[in-house]
Amino acid sequence: MDSRKNQYKPTTSAGSASLRNKKRDEKNVLRKDKREKVLLRKRTRHGVSESSEYEITTDQIKDLTNKLMTKKEDKVLYLKLLRSGFAQGTALIDAFLQVDNAMPCLISLLTGSDAEVQLMATWCLTNISAGTEQHAMTVARHASSYLITYLSSPSAPLQDQCAWTLGNLAGEGEEERKLLMQQGVVAALVPLLKSACSNVVKSAAFALSNLARSSEAKQKMVEMNVVDALVHLLELKNGAEDVITESLWVLTYLTACPEYAKTLSDAGVLKKVLNLLYEASKHEEPNVLLVTPLLRCLGNMMCDSEVMSTQDNQELVSDARLYESIDKFMHHSVLHLQKEGLWVLSNLAVYEPLCQKLIKCNLLPTVISLLNSAYNIRYEAAYCLCNIAQHGDDICREIFKQHAIPNIVPTLKSHDLELVSMSLSLIQMIMQASQEMAVKEFEEHGGLNGLELLEYNDNLTISQKTNHILDNFIYKYMTVKE
Fold this sequence. Notes:
Layout: H1 13-38, H2 58-70, H3 75-86, H4 90-97, H5 102-110, H6 115-129, H7 133-149, H8 156-172, H9 174-182, H10 185-189, H11 198-211, H12 215-223, H13 226-233, H14 241-255, H15 261-266, H16 269-281, H17 288-303, H18 305-308, H19 311-316, H20 320-330, H21 335-348, H22 352-360, H23 364-369, H24 375-389, H25 393-401, H26 404-408, H27 417-444, H28 447-454, H29 460-481
């Protein structure tokens, strides 16, 4: 995994655009990992009536497996107990696979004629696929072709379970995704987005979002008009937030690709995402699982100059409701919502009219206050402020008036050199605009001590920025004062 971060430099707008594009590409890699923490990339499934208090041992798993293979009766019961055990831990999956011919037996039940047994066998595969990488690959090699075939089954529960299992396999790694792509998985999944069964739609979208980590899969999805299907799902009402959430995760991957920007823009994705964001912000306790992909889609689209080049889209992102909504989410107790909100603002702030809108809507105090938050939040806040400050001295003076200096100074002591480098750039721009007043406030809040520690830093960029501030502002002001 490549490093996501790049040093901020207050340069021309062209340099800023290049930095923004590179930052987006590298951020997308880590955002995929972050997504896995919010919505697990692989998921087990529990029965409605199953009690998590009943724990199954490895010996019981082996005994159930042997009974499954030798007894003609009660196969549904044995499969239900096994699926419950598989959801309790990978050691129990290992115990099952250690029994000779256990997986071939499960596959024979999957391909049999008994519908209930077939569904339970698929459910077992779902939970096995949520285990280790080895477990997932075992399922992929033995069962993936059957699972893809049964996506066209007339049984909605079986479609749902097969799609869920394929989602787990796709979430495991590139090798599994490559295998599934070779077997035509995307062509089988996309039509399920139009299913009348919401569970089928959710599982299909879950599988597609994990497949969308692959460039080949994304291209195939777009060719199959997945964007139109997803946009339709964003219009659903009456408690369909879970369907919308899964659909948005697919869009987070598509919006991260500049080559699909026009397709997404023409389909009206930006407007749909904004409307959903406004609706979510009305709730006192917004649905975090919904808001996360909404903000990410929005941030990705703001990165793209083609999306932002149309008059309609510029008007959409000039709506005061957008800034009010982001401000609310940046005050949320869930830290990653703060981070996602800052990511959106950073990309909006690149455009001077939108930067002015941000300031007019009084978001500067919120952004500045987040310099005192957790590290990854501080980094995003500093980056956002650098994007705002690049628009000139007047805006830098506004940042200074909002008491940015006292909040920036502590970041100079951070162990993260990239955060320190950005903070130095921000200090330089503020001092360039506000001169003696900024230098005075900087000294009053202990900034000089921070600079002295960085003056001879081994990092050449940091030492150069530090000495530039000292020579052109601090020493100059001290000389005047004397």
